[in-house]
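Incident log entry.

Two folding requests arrived from the same account within the same minute. Monitoring flagged them as a possible duplicate submission, but the sequences differ. Recording both here for audit purposes.

Request one:
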Amino acid sequence: MPRTSGSCLAFFIPGAAIVGVGQAGALISSAMTISHVKLYSATAPTVAALICDININGASIFTTGLNLPTVAVGTNAVNSRIPDVTTLAAGDRLTVDVDQVGTVTGGAPLLAARWVLLLGLLFAPQAHPWYLLWLLPLEVALGRPTALVWSVLVLLAYAPLDGWLQTRIWAESGAVRAFEHAAVWAVLGVETRAWARFSGLWRRKDPTPAP
């Protein structure tokens, strides 16, 4: 439940930060206007930013994604820009989502395990589709897309199946394998760049918004 002080609503999410929806919430008892949102993390993110979202009745109050409350790497708090939706009516449901954890305490081991598995499979001489099953839970937990895309592309490895059924010779196409790996590396590059830009590593920091 939120703590209220005057016109302030404060939400507390205990334990290590994890990606998920509806991690805190409240039922609004009277009409009010949201002036700003402040996000605080007890442990500063070290590689990727901590990003949260606020919803009214399931819809984000930040219709512009770059306005989401974001604790940048090496910091503990941020005042967001003025939300795009600011009006709360009696009976509205206010909920808090965690959209990105990065390496706030609790995320670092998952992220490290993800990179070890992902790079190990990318450089492995053979990657059967079921090998990716180890990666998929990590991708979902961390909100990363590369292995999810790979889990679809890896099905191209079964393209020679019809020929094998007829001749009992498995003739895998080098071009198909090259396409599969090139596509996965391309997605990984786009993912890495996008997440770095979003966490402020590859762009100048936005001016601190007024409280």
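Request two (distinct sequence, not a duplicate):
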Amino acid sequence: MALSRSSAADSSPAATPAAGGEVTTAGSVSLADLFSAFAAKDTANYNTISTKDFNELSAELGVEGVEGSVVEYADGLVTFKEACDAAGIVMPGLPISINGVVECFRKVSDSKPTGNLAAFAQKMKLYAECDVNPEDKEVSFEDAIKAVSAASAEPMPLKLNVLKDAIRRWGKDGNGYLKPDELGQFARFYEIPPKDIKTDLEELMMADLLLLKAFELPKDHPIVQTAIPMNDVRKAFDWGDADHNGVLSAQELGRCLRLAGQNPSQSEIKKMMQMAQEERGGEFDFDAFTDIACKSYIPVADQVTRAKEAFSVFDEDGSGSISLAELRRIMTTYGEDMSPEEVKELFDTLDTDGDGKLNIDEFVELLVS
């Protein structure tokens, strides 16, 4: 996904990345001290704290707080990046915002000063295609940052996982969309310029977000090529992801695919999980699920064509309509386990003109929907 991001929050001067993958400090506060103090205030693990908590943190560490600052902290919140700026801590070049990096590290370290580098590298894979050193050892947050910078010091596109999670995290009403102010909070967290999320929409679902400049996909991307309904793909993933950890187990993958209208065998699911192990470090995330969905998706126009072809086959007497008895045979052919009463109920629902037969338009509605 093509994702633009600025080098610093738009409300503060852009900081020049530290050279050589090192974290530099202009003040007296170390990164380790700021990390610990910030995590202590941010008990919800959102990597933002209130301006009140930031003032308290500033007093404890001896850095500039909200009062008298030239920086405007929007929504009464301060991000970890903004706290670093206030403390004079400058990050090296990173592929994603330091806010995303600290979020990954806290997830694997449980907000402690050290975490496992291999687990951190795997978590970073959910955010960007960044090959962080996966060595199985304990490292400090600063060493984790150095490992990320060594993997890539240039901005990289965020993965679809991040956009999907944004709807859940910043969409406070839980209706599966973002309002403009919620989108603004997300963009600020990932240092995305406001001009790249400009929109006249009042509610933005997954498909709407992918039309914005910040998240625009290349024309040859499978999502663009297939015109797959991404709102439905996101819903299917979230419904199937029972523990909401952003990755799917084999059981959850099967549930997701069935919700997306597929009926995979256990062997097919096993192959998909093996692919995830080989290509994605064992994590079957939303990006992987979208890849599978795109490969198996049949565009609506093609579905209509196939439905019409099927109609001509099942219209055995060439009458231009299908009877209830023929519909029962069709349901059996398609593997639908429906009782005679259920088939009759379906037939009556589709028979919109009430003539006791299904014409081609009514039949197409059955198969395409």
